[in-house]
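TASK: fixed-backbone design
INPUT:
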């Protein structure tokens, strides 16, 4: 029998007719439900102003509807500064497929009534302030995306999620659950490609069933207490492109088979107890973008293949026991932005091609055994923010282009054998906040161009052979908190302009050949806690008014040529040792007794008590002497009177 050509069209028209009849009542229910949802929210950006009483909610901001039925199928209000609680009225939206509310300030509990939204495919309330135990949402059998991460949920870990077998993406990490384990039934989620269980207080081993989820592409179990050997079964997950297992209690070695996961782009297994050599095959992971293994116990050399990688952006191996020569071509072909190979045992020459792409921002290689000169090719690092190569065996002069990198914030060349001078180009490194040249063989004058570095907060030039005067231009550095120029060959007086560095917390100018007085302007350094001017040839009277208002926790003025009286507050700050070697310094006798000081007593400057005692004694002596003289005069007068009378009698 032939089918009527218009039967299907008639069916659609009938559906539309009946949906038209039904939609007003259903729409009014949904409008009312949404308005109740709105009522419990605060909306400072007025995004929900369009949510008003109407015949249809389809014009509401962030709401989508089915074009056929007019029923609400989606709510998307991410990152809208909304606060308040999620109303249970949302469960009245029977056709709702997606509820997306991330990155707001929502608080309170997640309503258990969401279980009624049986058509829900996506639920995302991540990055909010939700609390309490997560309700069992096992009834949401159609759910494909569940993201409850980065909230304040507590109680037991939501093991019921393993019942949601349609899940493709599961993120419940970064909450405050009770300590628990990854459920063995995790293997039920056969369609899962993304899992985020980070910071979930999980312990124990990763269940073997997990490694049967062959669709898995990205796993994050970081910052838990997961233990056991590094799981060899992870190599079954052929689609894996991201492994994040950092900050756990894993031990053992990396299985060579990991190199078979050729789609891997990110590996972060840092902060565990892993050891052994890195499998040579890791160097063949050509898609690798991030490789982080820091704070483990790995040994041996970096696989040579890392030098040929084309996509590597971030490489971090610090605090291991890796050794040997670094791959010669490392960074030559890759868009490297960050490398941290600090605190290992790498030796031989410093890698030359780290800045080949010009994108490097962080170069950290301190605490190794690199030798030879620092490569001039690093002058290409115009984007560099941090350069730290201290505690190596590097020598020679620093290429002049390095000093003037425009975006560099930290330069640390300390504890090497570098020579040469700081060139005037340092004045163009205007982003510099910290400069460390400690314990090298730098020489010449300290350049006045340092005064142009308005952001400089820490200046450590100690342990070198700098000579000449301390540039007065340092006095304009309003963010300078630490100034260390000790153990050099500096001469001249201490510039009074240093008193303008209002943020100075510590100043060490010891073991130079500085002379003159301690500047009176030092009394302005009210934030200063540490002051060391020892082992110089400073002269002049120690004026307590310059330093008495300071709140020093450490003071050392020893081995100079200062004179005068050491006041009680200065003695409290530094003790005797702070003033030793200054032959002209002394303490008052009463202070010596009171503070058990070993400093000599001031002889040429009597105390008030001594002067008063001297005055009293002198006065008494004068009174006695005057009385004695009066008595003698009286006797003399008497004697004279007798003689006179005798003479009258004789007449």
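OUTPUT:
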């Amino acid at each position: 029998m032939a089918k009527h050509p218009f039967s299907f069209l008639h069916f659609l028209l009938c559906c539309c007719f009946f949906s038209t009849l039904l939609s007003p009542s259903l729409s009014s229910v949904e409008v009312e439900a949404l308005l109740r949802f709105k009522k419990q929210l605060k909306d400072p950006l007025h995004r929900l102003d369009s949510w008003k009483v109407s015949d249809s909610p389809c014009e509401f901001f962030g709401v989508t509807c089915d074009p056929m039925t007019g029923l609400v199928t989606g709510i998307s209000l991410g990152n809208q500064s909304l606060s308040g609680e999620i109303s249970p009225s949302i469960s009245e939206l029977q056709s709702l497929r997606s509820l997306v509310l991330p990155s707001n300030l929502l608080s309170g509990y997640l309503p258990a009534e969401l279980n009624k939204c049986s058509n829900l495919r996506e639920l995302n309330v991540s990055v909010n302030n939700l609390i309490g135990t997560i309700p069992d949402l096992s009834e949401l059998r159609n759910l494909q995306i569940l993201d409850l991460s980065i909230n304040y949920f507590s109680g037991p870990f939501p093991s019921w999620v393993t019942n949601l077998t349609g899940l493709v993406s599961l993120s419940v990490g970064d909450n405050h659950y009770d300590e628990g384990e990854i459920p063995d039934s995790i293997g039920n989620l056969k369609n899962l490609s993304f899992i985020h269980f980070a910071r979930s207080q999980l312990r124990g081993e990763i269940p073997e069933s997990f490694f049967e989820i062959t669709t898995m592409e990205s796993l994050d179990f970081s910052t838990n207490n997961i233990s056991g050997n590094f799981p060899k079964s992870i190599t079954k997950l052929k689609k894996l492109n991201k492994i994040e297992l950092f900050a756990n209690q894993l031990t053992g070695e990396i299985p060579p088979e990991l190199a078979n996961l050729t789609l891997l782009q990110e590996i972060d297994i840092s902060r565990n107890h892993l050891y052994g050599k890195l499998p040579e095959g890791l160097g063949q992971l050509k898609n690798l973008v991030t490789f982080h293994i820091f704070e483990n116990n790995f040994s041996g050399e970096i696989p040579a293949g890392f030098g040929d990688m084309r996509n590597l952006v971030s490489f971090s191996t610090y605090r291991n026991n890796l050794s040997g020569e670094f791959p010669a071509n490392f960074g030559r072909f890759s868009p490297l932005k960050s490398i941290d190979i600090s605190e290992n045992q790498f030796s031989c020459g410093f890698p030359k091609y780290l800045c080949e792409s010009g994108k490097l921002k962080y170069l950290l290689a301190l605490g190794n055994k690199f030798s030879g000169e620092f490569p001039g090719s690093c002058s290409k690092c115009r984007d560099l923010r941090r350069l730290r190569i201290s505690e190596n065996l590097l020598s020679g002069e620093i290429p002049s282009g390095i000093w003037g990198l425009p975006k560099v914030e930290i330069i640390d060349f300390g504890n090497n054998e570098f020579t040469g001078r700081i060139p005037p180009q340092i004045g163009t490194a205007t982003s510099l906040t910290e400069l460390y040249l400690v314990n090298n063989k730098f020489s010449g004058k300290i350049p006045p161009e340092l005064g142009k570095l308005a952001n400089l907060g820490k200046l450590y030039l100690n342990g070198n052979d700098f000579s000449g005067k301390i540039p007065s231009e340092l006095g304009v550095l309003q963010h300078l908190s630490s100034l260390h120029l000790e153990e050099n060959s500096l001469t001249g007086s201490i510039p009074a302009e240093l008193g303008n560095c209002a943020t100075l917390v510590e100043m060490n100018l010891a073991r130079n050949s500085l002379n003159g007085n301690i500047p009176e302007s030092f009394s302005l350094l009210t934030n200063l806690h540490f002051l060391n001017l020892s082992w110089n040839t400073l002269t002049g009277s120690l004026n307590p008014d310059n330093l008495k208002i300071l709140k020093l926790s450490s003071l050392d003025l020893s081995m100079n040529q200062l004179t005068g009286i050491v006041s009680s507050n200065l003695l409290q700050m530094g003790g005797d040792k702070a003033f030793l070697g200054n032959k002209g310094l002394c303490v008052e006798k009463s202070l010596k007794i009171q503070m058990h000081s070993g400093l000599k007593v001031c002889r040429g400057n009597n105390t008030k008590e001594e002067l008063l005692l001297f005055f009293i004694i002198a006065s008494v002596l004068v009174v006695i002497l005057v009385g004695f003289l009066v008595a003698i005069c009286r006797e003399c007068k008497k004697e004279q009177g007798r003689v006179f009378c005798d003479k009258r009698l004789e007449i």
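COMMENT: The first helix runs from residue 7 to 39.
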